[in-house]
Design brief:
There is one protein chain. By secondary structure, the chain is α+β, with helices and mostly antiparallel strands. It folds into two domains: 71 residues, no CATH class; 82 residues, General secretion pathway protein M, EpsM (Gyrase A, domain 2, 2-Layer Sandwich). It contains four helices and four strands, in the order αααββαββ. Strands 1-2-4-3 form a four-stranded antiparallel β-sheet, covered by helices on one side. The longest helix has 49 residues. The termini are far apart. 10% of the residues are buried.
Length: 182
C-alpha cells in the first residue's frame, strides 16, 4: 500500500487568538451582567429600607399618643389618610381577586374565526364587561352572543347595538354587547 502524504496548513495560532478574543468578550459580558445585578440589588435594598421606614411611620401614627391637642389633630388627620389608603388598597385587592383568567378564557373560547374582538372593557365594580367586536355577518354575531350566554363564567349577555358597514363590500357587522360575570 502506498503512503499517503497529508499536509496540514500551519494556522500560526490564529485559532488561539480567536479563542482568547471570544473568552475576553465573554468575561466582559459577565462583568456587565454582574454590574447590572449589583445595581438591581442596590435598588431592592433601597426599596426595602423605604418600605420599612413607611411601616415604622405607620406604627408611630397608629400608636397611642399624648393628650395634647396638636398631636391628636395630626394623628386624626394621619388616621384618616391611612384609612383612605387602606380603602384604596382593598379596592385594588378586590379587583385582583376577580376571576380574570376564567373571564378571558371564556371570551376567547366563545370567539371564532368569523368574529374579531375590537374592544374589551371590564367594570370590576359592577362585575360587568362591554365587548366591541366585528363579525362577518349577522349569524356569526348571534352565534358569538349565544356562545357567551352558554359560558358558565358569564351570564346575561345582551346585544346593545349593531351596525352593518354598507361601504365595505363584505358587509361586516360591528356590534357592542354587555355581559355580567358570575
Amino acid at each position: 500500500m502506498r503512503r499517503l502524504g497529508l499536509r496540514f496548513p500551519d494556522t500560526g495560532g490564529g485559532a488561539e487568538r480567536v479563542g482568547y478574543i471570544i473568552m475576553s468578550l465573554g468575561l466582559m459580558m459577565l462583568g456587565a451582567v454582574l454590574y447590572e445585578f449589583n445595581l438591581a440589588m442596590n435598588e431592592v435594598a433601597y426599596w426595602d429600607t423605604r418600605i420599612a421606614s413607611v411601616e415604622r411611620r405607620v406604627q408611630r401614627t397608629t400608636a397611642p399618643q399624648g393628650t395634647s391637642s396638636s398631636s391628636s389633630s395630626s394623628s386624626s388627620y394621619a388616621g384618616r389618610d391611612m384609612k383612605q389608603e387602606v380603602k384604596k388598597a382593598n379596592a385594588v385587592m378586590s379587583e385582583l381577586d376577580l376571576p380574570w383568567q376564567a373571564l378571558f378564557d371564556s371570551v376567547e373560547y366563545a370567539a371564532n374565526h368569523d368574529v374579531a374582538l375590537l374592544s374589551f372593557q371590564p367594570d370590576p365594580a359592577g362585575r360587568m364587561m362591554r365587548i366591541g367586536a366585528e363579525a362577518k355577518n349577522i349569524a356569526a354575531m348571534l352565534d358569538f352572543v349565544g356562545a357567551l350566554e352558554r359560558e358558565p363564567v358569564l351570564k346575561d349577555a345582551h346585544l346593545l347595538k349593531y351596525e352593518i358597514k354598507r361601504d365595505d363590500p363584505h358587509r361586516p357587522v360591528i356590534f357592542l354587547l354587555t355581559a355580567i360575570w358570575a
